[in-house]
């Protein structure tokens, strides 16, 4: 496929799951975290999942150290800038970075300081590298509904200034769309675009409810969409893109292997599949690795890649001007 030289788009990338290990190690020591390791090789075992990771919940434990150091403006801006730099070197032309602002208030930062630090990192990288970026604000499903309202309301002033969308993430439970319907519906009214983590861990009906109740324009993962015929039908009818993250899905045991992943069947049936990393550090991956694995396993071809690139352009929350620039790369 020669994917290394091809332009790429990343629509599903968590900031706290994609911190350079070297930076994370450095900042951990600077912040005085006693982790009991002395080398970067030992440290990597603390922030990367093993191949025998057993579940999504175990996977999420690997974010702990990143969230402990992402509590200052300088650290947040640096980490964001470095992520943009890293993906630009992989020929990523556009990225939507998502993060949960309320995870970064533990040392007194205001909501505004947190969001503005990340936006600053994006804007600084855009000036230095051939890449565009936008920000998705995530609400944690493990937090109260009131916290989601807070993110939606406080983040609204940044729409069009770096922020493009709202997201619901973290552990997936049945019927979560009903719980968060009011704040997400408010987000839509305020001008946010909507992407929702759903159907990642075996609950296809969550995909249906995310579309019907939350007006989701994209679905994060959506592995189990096939288990809910109504959801599957809506994905096709409404041209809703799936933000598929193959390696992450293998690690969280959403699927047992790349070959068993339904992404190829979805793609061949006309569902708009896009390929993403989810968490570059936690899963020790990047888009080059993702596409190379999929090619080596004869899951997707170069022609499939080009189609998925176009799906990513159209499904992105970028401005029409940026979309036109992205289209010109292919």
TrEMBL record:
<feature type="site" description="Important for catalytic activity">
    <location>
        <position position="221"/>
    </location>
</feature>
<dbReference type="Pfam" id="PF00962">
    <property type="entry name" value="A_deaminase"/>
</dbReference>
<feature type="binding site">
    <location>
        <position position="197"/>
    </location>
    <ligand>
        <name>Zn(2+)</name>
    </ligand>
</feature>
<comment type="function">
    <text>Catalyzes the hydrolytic deamination of adenosine and 2-deoxyadenosine.</text>
</comment>
<dbReference type="InterPro" id="IPR032466">
    <property type="entry name" value="Metal_Hydrolase"/>
</dbReference>
<keyword id="KW-0479">Metal-binding</keyword>
<dbReference type="GO" id="GO:0004000">
    <property type="term" value="F:adenosine deaminase activity"/>
</dbReference>
<comment type="similarity">
    <text>Belongs to the metallo-dependent hydrolases superfamily. Adenosine and AMP deaminases family. Adenosine deaminase subfamily.</text>
</comment>
<keyword id="KW-0378">Hydrolase</keyword>
<dbReference type="InterPro" id="IPR006330">
    <property type="entry name" value="Ado/ade_deaminase"/>
</dbReference>
<feature type="binding site">
    <location>
        <position position="12"/>
    </location>
    <ligand>
        <name>Zn(2+)</name>
    </ligand>
</feature>
<dbReference type="GO" id="GO:0009168">
    <property type="term" value="P:purine ribonucleoside monophosphate biosynthetic process"/>
</dbReference>
<feature type="binding site">
    <location>
        <position position="14"/>
    </location>
    <ligand>
        <name>Zn(2+)</name>
    </ligand>
</feature>
<dbReference type="GO" id="GO:0006154">
    <property type="term" value="P:adenosine catabolic process"/>
</dbReference>
<keyword id="KW-0862">Zinc</keyword>
<dbReference type="GO" id="GO:0043103">
    <property type="term" value="P:hypoxanthine salvage"/>
</dbReference>
<feature type="domain" description="Adenosine deaminase">
    <location>
        <begin position="7"/>
        <end position="328"/>
    </location>
</feature>
<feature type="binding site">
    <location>
        <position position="278"/>
    </location>
    <ligand>
        <name>Zn(2+)</name>
    </ligand>
</feature>
<protein>
    <recommendedName>
        <fullName>Adenosine deaminase</fullName>
        <ecNumber>3.5.4.4</ecNumber>
    </recommendedName>
</protein>
<dbReference type="GO" id="GO:0009117">
    <property type="term" value="P:nucleotide metabolic process"/>
</dbReference>
<feature type="binding site">
    <location>
        <position position="14"/>
    </location>
    <ligand>
        <name>substrate</name>
    </ligand>
</feature>
<dbReference type="GO" id="GO:0046103">
    <property type="term" value="P:inosine biosynthetic process"/>
</dbReference>
<keyword id="KW-0546">Nucleotide metabolism</keyword>
<dbReference type="GO" id="GO:0008270">
    <property type="term" value="F:zinc ion binding"/>
</dbReference>
<feature type="active site" description="Proton donor">
    <location>
        <position position="200"/>
    </location>
</feature>
<feature type="binding site">
    <location>
        <position position="16"/>
    </location>
    <ligand>
        <name>substrate</name>
    </ligand>
</feature>
<dbReference type="InterPro" id="IPR001365">
    <property type="entry name" value="A_deaminase_dom"/>
</dbReference>
<dbReference type="InterPro" id="IPR028893">
    <property type="entry name" value="A_deaminase"/>
</dbReference>
<dbReference type="GO" id="GO:0005829">
    <property type="term" value="C:cytosol"/>
</dbReference>
């Amino acid at each position: 496929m020669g994917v290394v030289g091809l332009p790429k788009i990343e629509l599903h990338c968590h900031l706290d799951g994609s911190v350079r290990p070297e930076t994370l190690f450095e900042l951990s020591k600077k912040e005085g975290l006693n982790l009991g390791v002395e080398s970067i090789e030992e440290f990597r075992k603390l922030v990367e999942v093993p191949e025998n990771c057993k579940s999504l919940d175990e996977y999420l434990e690997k974010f702990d150290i990143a969230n402990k150091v992402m509590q200052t403006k300088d650290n947040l801006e640096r980490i964001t800038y470095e992520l943009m730099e890293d993906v630009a070197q992989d020929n990523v032309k556009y990225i939507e970075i998502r993060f949960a602002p309320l995870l970064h208030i533990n040392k007194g930062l205001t909501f505004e300081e947190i969001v503005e630090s990340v936006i600053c990192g994006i804007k600084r990288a855009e000036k230095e590298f051939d890449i565009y970026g936008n920000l998705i604000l995530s609400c944690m499903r493990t937090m109260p509904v009131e916290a989601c309202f807070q993110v939606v309301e406080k983040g609204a002033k940044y729409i069009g200034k770096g922020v493009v969308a709202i997201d619901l993430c973290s552990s997936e439970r049945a019927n979560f769309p009903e719980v968060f319907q009011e704040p997400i519906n408010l987000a839509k009214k305020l001008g946010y675009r909507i992407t929702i983590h759903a159907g990642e861990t075996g609950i296809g009906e969550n995909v249906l409810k995310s579309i019907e109740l939350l007006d989701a324009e994209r679905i994060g993962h959506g592995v189990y969409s096939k288990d809910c015929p109504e959801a599957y039908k809506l994905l096709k009818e409404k041209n809703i893109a799936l933000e598929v993250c193959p390696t992450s899905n293998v690690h969280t045991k959403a699927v047992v292997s790349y070959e068993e992943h339904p992404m190829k069947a979805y793609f061949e049936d006309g569902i708009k599949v896009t390929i993403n990393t989810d968490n570059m550090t936690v899963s020790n991956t990047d888009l080059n690795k993702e596409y190379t694995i999929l090619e080596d396993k004869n899951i997707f071809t170069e022609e499939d890649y080009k189609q998925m690139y176009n799906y990513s352009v159209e499904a992105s929350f970028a401005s029409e001007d940026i979309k036109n620039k992205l289209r010109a790369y292919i």
